[in-house]
Amino acid sequence: MIKITAADILKVVPITRKTLWLWQKKYKFFPDPSKEAHPGGKGIVGYYPEWVKARCEKVYALQKEGYTIAMIKDILKKEAEEKATNKVLVVDDEKKFAAILKKYLTRNGFLVEVANDGMEAGLKAAQFMPSIILLDITMPGLNGLEVCKNLKSNPTTQQMKIIIITAHVNYSEKSVEAAGADMFLRKPVDFKVLLDECKKFVAVPENL
């Protein structure tokens, strides 16, 4: 994954750090950076998803053309709605795993929500309308296969791509396919492989 810092953005967009901070905080043009330890041990560094640089270039270009902040926000909102195919719902009762996966996918340009049981998964799927659902099988209440069957039988959610993820050997790829899932992965999951599969299902926004 290519990591983009504020310094990287300012090399191609002729604005100040204060302006970048204002765009981020006041106008919500892009997410807050994720904080990580500096590779050289010199404090903390903030990293943005790679598409943030392209978005800042676009915002700057629109301002140069005379567009107001309100007009720019409206343009970006409409484009985001048209390209909002990068939503992922992570469903897993292992909260630590779900949080780590959410952080990883978010860094790579996805919009991510989390559900920790089958019932919550159905509700969030209907509200959030993700393009992809990463679904664990063994959870309290409805298990993942039941959730998958319910979602695939509902006209509102049946187009969502479902990737079943489990550590249990009791479930076969055949049983997962019978439930309607689009893919089957076993834990421990290689996040890079999972990311590549998600990118095949949806178009990650590179230039909003």
Description:
The protein is an alpha/beta fold and 208 residues long. The protein has two domains: 6-82, Multidrug-efflux Transporter Regulator, Chain: A, Domain 2 (Orthogonal Bundle); 87-201, 3-Layer(aba) Sandwich (Rossmann fold), CATH 3.40.50.2300. It is 45% helix and 16% strand. The protein has a five-stranded parallel sheet, sandwiched between helices. A two-stranded antiparallel ribbon has the order 1-2. Helix 6 runs parallel beside helix 7 (144-152). It is elongated and about 55 Å long. Residues 204-208 have low confidence and may be disordered.
The CATH topology of the largest domain = Rossmann fold
Instruction: Please work out how many helical segments DSSP would assign.
Output: 9
Query: Topology as H/E string?
Result: HHEEHHEHEHEHEHEH
First and last CA, distance: 19 Å
Percent helix: 40-55%
Outline the biggest β-sheet: 5 strands, parallel
Q: Mean of residue pLDDT? A: 84
Oligomer: single chain
Number of domains: 2
How many strand units?
7
CATH C-level category of the largest domain: Alpha Beta
Strands of the widest sheet, in order across it, are: 4-3-5-6-7
Which structural class should the secondary elements be placed in? alpha/beta
Strand content: 15-25%
**Can you say what the CATH homologous superfamily of the largest domain is?**
Response regulator
Question: Which ranges are low-confidence, i.e. pLDDT below 50, for 5 or more consecutive residues?
Answer: 204-208
CATH architecture title of the largest domain: 3-Layer(aba) Sandwich
